[in-house]
Specification:
Strand order of the largest sheet of chain C: 1-2
Low-confidence stretches of chain C: 1-18, 579-602
Radius of gyration of chain A: 19 Å
Largest sheet of chain A: 6 strands, mixed
Helix content of chain C: 55-70%
CATH superfamily of the domain at 2-68 and 159-257 in chain A: P-loop containing nucleotide triphosphate hydrolases
Number of strands of chain C: 6
Number of helices of chain C: 23
Order of helices and strands of chain C: EHHHHEHHHHHHHHHEEEEHHHHHHHHHH
Strand order of the largest sheet of chain A: 6-7-8-3-9-10
Structural class of chain C: mainly alpha
Radius of gyration of chain C: 27 Å
Number of domains of chain C: 2
Helix content of chain A: 40-55%
Chains: A alpha/beta (262), B mainly alpha (309), C mainly alpha (602)
Low-confidence stretches of chain A: 241-262
CATH architecture of the domain at 2-68 and 159-257 in chain A: 3-Layer(aba) Sandwich
Oligomer: heterotrimer
Distance between the termini of chain C: 47 Å
Order of helices and strands of chain A: EEEHEEHEHHHHEHEHEEHHHH
Shape of chain C: globular
Mean pLDDT of chain A: 80
Largest interface: A-C, 58 and 49 residues
């Protein structure tokens, strides 16, 4: 993935197997979020492909979600003025069929589907513990609950792979612990999870495998022990902490420099 | 029947006028991502400002050599004031609002300006005569008037000074920075409010230049003149790649030529005999916009975004 | 502006502390007495003669009977007295003031004062001088001032400045005590009464014969509704409506049908039918603007496409296809389908891009539509639409042997031509309301709102943004086309001129958008109310006609600045416009804002 002259992510080969929690770490600006955006079709990769369960995914966000990859955002992007329940129902979009006509005619099929969607959404709200706030506006939730709701919304699309972009950013230790439990529970549902995080303890507690991304390239990949012991990782974090910084800013400004792809 | 070179010249002239107005759209958009719908009316008020100078301030019989620069100043002052006032009092309070809000404000502003002129400018409800420069010169097979010469010179001077300003001056560079990333620019000590005002002011002044050329060329102005001109100038800005100042001028010229050629020649195409002529020119301009959006939505110069102001 | 820091008013029986005293220093009993007696006196003064000549509209010369504007003074006086009684805690009236706050008293008193003084000043101005006042006028002027004095003598926690205190006087309290449970049948009875009242008020407004009375009507209406709002009664009523949604809709529908029965003159039914057409189209636009957040500035062109289609197949001898006469259902379908096709043609290239492009392309389309139908007269273009002359002599509709052009007798009431069409339009509007509500509350409606809220997140949730936006746009276009087919028959002819971006009278795209924005985006009743207001204002206030567009432009700017959510605020919209909220969403990069354009470059 290149932005103008800048290469944000380069040759990152990466596989996540089902039932696995994989962590993606790296200093600020290493290209983690850009990598996510490529995965989910928000950016069109300059080169390379994303495949899921053996099929190559087209770079369109809605098709990626439909194929079974759901995500959360680093800076929460809930539908602020919709209720908690409605947010999760929007997540059900790809798993339901009802179009305009059935909405207008309100046949039995429509009612059944709406009921089923709502039941499923309520299950998910129970799962994250927000069922009692179903009719609150998303914007009125406290920060931690907004993070949870975003996860529930992503789960509503019945993904096989869930991408979490800094799910514990700004959380206190208790909340972080709770999120950890939540991620384990999601894994136990048979969903593969890929997490971006800065909180090392969180990552190493959680993940079966950890990959380190530095300056857009994959440095190491392996179990927590392997990664923790790797000198290059330590160097990347402590030795040159601000090296990669400009990349992140560049990625942000990419709207004005415009993605270039072949 | 005009010759092809004459048609091309006409298109080029019309296009320069579109381009001058389009600069206003594109600069404002480049910096605040706002489509200033009322820009067509800023153009219109500029024309009335210039007319005011000629009719009510200058003594009768002032030579046009003296009158035109003074009219330019008068029109420029009016347009710039209206543009800056619109920014300050209508758009600025809405900068954090959902994007529908400034668009609706712009429509309100556009109606207000039109109606103010129609209701309160003497005789503006019908078209008002504007002093025209219609002395004709022949260059080869092409006839051009003094007004055309003024338009071409003004467009060239405006474009080159703008290019210099954006590239070399401190404010111009601050402008580029703000366009890239307003938040960072602000952190770097750039007064973004001032930059935005400057963008509105430049756009307003260029619109006044276009308005004066319009009056001198066509010999009359009315309160509705801004609507279609504004719409087409915006089309030009989009065609050139919105946010790109050179694109705006290029888009204007392409649109002007395409429109002129379409109204002149499309009736020669079998099956389309009745779709030519001036009355369909606007339709073709619009069809062109749709085609551009379909096939090249980023505009003709869309990839040079890094250079935009 | 309902949020203030000091809304708390002490309960009526508590002794006012030093902090809470009135702006006018009077003891509480005196203030209340002034309100009550002043209210009664104001109402009573309406029975006196206010002027000596019947030259003033409404004939205010009669003793013993109110006329014209006096009726409005009377109503305002009675309302003030009722609220005053409620503030005493009179049994049976307590429900009028659940929060026991000052605002309803202040506002009704101001309403009475406003309409009475307006009348008195109009009399003096119209007839030339105070000499035209009768003793009754002086009494009314004084009587209507009394409750205002009383109202501002009510104890009120003082704000930091006089302005703040004044604001606090008319503020709605933050918490309205929950109502006692009301039996369902009483709830329904109340809804029925309100529907009947609404019909009465609406019919009164339409029937006003003079601009003066209409202004007086607006003054009383605005202050009365405002008073009910600050009293918390509107909230209670909407809660009641929420519990009885279908019943309310049915009653609203009945009230709408009953409207022509209240009219003796078919002219007013004509106004009614035009309001309905305007409102229906505004509601269709609301799907596009209010739900999906797409700004359509050429919406009236779709109305025009429908109208022209219907006219062409109406069997009018001036139509290009004069031999063709479709039955109405086929013409309606054809009109809707033609608009749909244009909607898709316009929407498909533009909806992939940022929303602003749509605005400008639709603006262009609206203008081009008008130019094209103007040109297609066989001289400067193909011969299809008969150019600026349009297609006249469109025959009246006949449905199941029912001729819409003739007056019919119905149980003693005469239903005239326009009343027939009015009833047809009620059906069309009912259809559009149903479409709106059902679409909004479904998978597709949720995806529209999601797109409006955050397009990037919506697509990441699997919504095909382009597709659902196109559906919204096309649906809006076909509903407008449908309304257009009826409007062609109502007006006998179609001409290019009304289908423009901005004009002095509705419908045009700017007025339509304003109806939606003024009434309240994303609500059902908002655009209809907005349409009624925007239609009636230029119709009734003839003196405004020349300046109406100016007033209207200024109003749009002020509205966006001070109350962007419109008269009837959608809960979501209100928050969206007024709060920054807790979400750290605003940190959007330019890239995520325009993914479509960025990608198109790839």
């Amino acid at each position: 993935m290149r932005f103008g002259g800048l290469t944000a992510v380069r040759s990152v080969d990466f596989t996540v197997n089902s039932g696995e929690i994989v962590g993606l770490i790296g200093p600020n600006g290493a290209g983690k979020t850009t990598f996510f955006n490529c995965l989910t079709g928000l950016y069109v990769p300059t080169e390379g492909t994303v495949s899921y369960q053996g099929t190559v995914l087209p770079p369109k966000p809605h098709l990626v979600t439909k194929a079974g990859i759901a995500r959360t955002f680093q800076n929460i992007r809930l539908f602020a003025n919709m209720t908690v329940l409605e947010n999760v129902l929007v997540g059900r979009h790809t798993r339901t069929r009802e179009g305009l006509w059935s909405a207008l005619l309100r046949g039995p099929g429509f009612k059944k589907a709406e009921k089923a969607s709502e039941a499923r959404a309520m299950e998910l709200l129970e799962f994250i513990g927000l069922a009692h706030k179903r009719d609150h506006l998303a914007r009125n939730l406290p920060y931690g609950e907004q993070r949870k709701l975003e996860i529930a919304r992503a789960l509503a699309s019945e993904p096989g792979l869930l991408l979490l972009d800094e799910p514990t950013a700004g959380m206190n230790p208790q909340e972080t612990r709770a999120t950890e439990e939540l991620v384990f529970a999601i894994r136990d549902m048979g969903i593969a999870v890929l997490v971006i995080e800065h909180d090392m303890r969180f990552i190493f507690n959680l993940c079966d495998r950890v990959a380190v991304l530095v300056q857009g390239e994959k440095l190491v990949e392996g179990t927590s022990e392997v990664v923790q012991a790797d000198d290059r990782v330590i160097a990347a974090y402590l030795g040159e902490p601000f090296e990669g910084d400009p990349a992140q800013n560049e990625a942000k400004a990419a709207g004005t420099t415009k993605g270039e792809a072949q | 029947m005009h010759t092809l070179p004459q048609q091309l010249a006409n298109g080029l002239l019309l296009g320069s006028m579109y381009g001058l107005i389009a600069i206003g759209y594109t600069m404002v958009y480049g910096i605040v991502q706002l489509i200033n719908f009322a820009h067509g009316e800023i153009f219109m008020t500029g024309a009335f400002g210039a007319l005011t100078v000629y009719v009510y301030i200058l003594p009768d019989g002032t030579s046009m050599w003296a009158a035109v620069p003074l009219m330019l100043i008068g029109g420029g002052i009016v347009s710039v004031l209206v543009a800056v006032g619109a920014e300050r009092f209508a758009y600025r309070p809405l900068r954090q609002a959902p994007r529908l809000a400034p668009l609706i404000t712009a429509i309100g502003l556009s109606l207000t300006l039109q109606e103010l002129v129609r209701n309160f400018y003497p005789g503006a409800d019908k078209s008002r005569a504007f002093p025209s420069l219609d002395a004709t010169h022949s260059i080869g097979s092409v006839d051009i008037t003094d007004a055309d010469i003024f338009l071409v010179c003004a467009a060239i001077v405006c474009m080159s000074s703008l290019a210099w300003f954006v590239r070399k001056s401190r404010t111009g560079r601050a402008m580029q920075a703000t366009a890239q990333d307003p938040d960072t620019a602000q952190l770097m000590g750039i007064d973004t409010n001032r930059i935005i005002v400057v963008a509105f002011a430049i756009g307003g002044f260029f619109a006044a230049v276009a308005a004066l050329s319009y009056g001198l060329k066509y010999g009359n102005i009315d309160y509705r003149m801004g609507f279609l001109m504004g719409l087409k100038a915006f089309t030009a800005a989009v065609m050139g790649g919105i946010g790109n100042i050179y694109g705006a001028m290029l888009g204007g010229v392409v649109l002007g030529i395409a429109e002129t050629l379409a109204s002149a020649y499309i009736s020669n195409i079998p099956g389309m005999q009745q779709l030519g002529g001036q009355s369909w020119a606007n339709v073709w301009a619009f069809v062109l916009l749709i085609l551009v959006l379909l096939f090249r939505p980023q505009g003709l110069l869309g990839e040079r975004v890094a250079d935009r102001a | 502006m309902t949020e203030t820091k000091s809304p708390a008013t002490p309960p009526a029986d508590a002794t006012p502390t030093t902090a809470t005293r009135g702006l006018i220093g009077l003891p509480l009993p005196a203030a209340r007495a002034l309100l009550l007696l002043g209210g009664i006196a104001t109402a009573a003064s309406a029975f006196l003669a206010w002027t000596w000549t019947s030259d003033f509209p409404g004939d205010l010369t009669v003793y013993g009977y109110p006329g014209g504007l006096q009726w409005l003074t009377f109503v305002a006086g009675v309302l003030t007295a009722l609220f005053a009684l409620a503030s005493y805690g009179v049994r049976g009236l307590r429900w009028l003031l659940p929060a026991r706050n000052n605002a309803p008293l202040v506002l009704t008193a101001l309403g009475g004062f406003g309409v009475t003084w307006f009348t008195a000043i109009e009399i003096a101005a119209k007839l030339g001088g105070l000499a035209n006042w009768e003793p009754g006028t002086y009494i009314a002027v004084v009587a209507s001032l009394i409750p205002v004095i009383g109202a501002f003598a009510l104890p009120q926690e003082a704000g930091e400045s006089t302005k703040e205190t004044l604001k606090a006087y008319i503020a709605k309290p933050e918490a309205i005590p929950a109502p006692q449970p009301i039996a369902p049948w009483i709830q329904r009875l109340i809804i029925t009464i309100v529907a009947a009242l609404g019909l009465g008020v609406f019919a009164y407004g339409i029937d006003t014969q003079y601009g003066e009375i209409f202004i007086g009507f607006l003054i009383v209406l605005v202050f009365a509704v405002w008073a009910l709002h600050t009293a918390g009664l509107l909230d209670r009523f909407s809660a009641m409506v929420a519990d009885n949604r279908s019943f309310t809709l049915a009653m609203g529908f009945l009230a709408a049908i009953a409207f022509p029965l209240t009219q003796t003159d078919d002219h007013y039914a004509n106004i009614g039918v035009n309001i309905l057409i305007f409102g229906t189209v505004a509601l269709g636009l609301n799907i596009v603007v209010g739900l999906a957040g797409l700004l359509d500035l050429g919406y009236v062109a779709f109305l025009g496409v429908g109208a022209y289609t219907a006219a062409l197949v109406s069997g009018s001898e001036f139509s290009r296809f004069s031999g063709v006469q479709f039955p109405f259902w086929a013409a309606a379908l054809a009109g809707a389908a033609a608009s749909l096709i244009f909607g898709v043609l316009i929407g498909a290239p533009t909806l992939r891009l940022r929303g602003d492009y749509l605005a400008i392309v639709t603006l262009g389309f609206g203008e081009i539509f008008r130019l094209a139908v103007n040109n297609m007269d066989g001289v400067s273009g193909p011969d299809i639409t008969n150019g600026p002359n349009g297609i006249p002599s469109i025959p009246d509709l006949k449905l199941f042997g029912f001729n819409f052009g003739e007056a019919h007798d119905l149980g003693g009431f005469t239903i005239g031509r326009f009343a027939n069409y009015y009833l047809l339009m009620v059906l069309v509007m009912a259809l559009v309301v149903t479409v709106y509500r059902r679409a909004a509350d479904s998978r597709i409606g949720r995806s529209w709102i999601a797109i409006r809220e955050d397009e990037t997140a919506a697509t990441a949730m699997g919504i095909n943004g382009f597709r659902v936006k196109l559906i919204a746009f096309a649906l809006g276009a076909s509903l407008a086309g449908l309304a257009g087919t009826v409007s062609a028959h109502v007006t006998y002819n179609v001409v290019p001129n009304p289908y423009q971006f901005a004009g002095a009278a509705p419908p045009n795209s700017a007025f339509l958008l304003a109806a939606v924005v003024l009434g309240g985006m994303g609500t059902v009743s908002g655009p209809i109310l907005g349409a009624a207001l925007l239609y009636l204002l230029p119709e009734k206030l003839v003196f405004l006609q020349d300046k109406s567009l100016l007033a209207f432009g200024i109003a749009l700017i002020l509205l966006m600045r001070f109350r962007p959510e419109g008269i009837i605020a959608n809960r979501r919209r209100q928050l969206e416009f007024h709060e920054t909220g807790q979400l750290d969403v605003p940190e959007t990069t330019t890239l995520s804002d325009e993914p479509a354009v960025t990608k198109a470059g790839a």
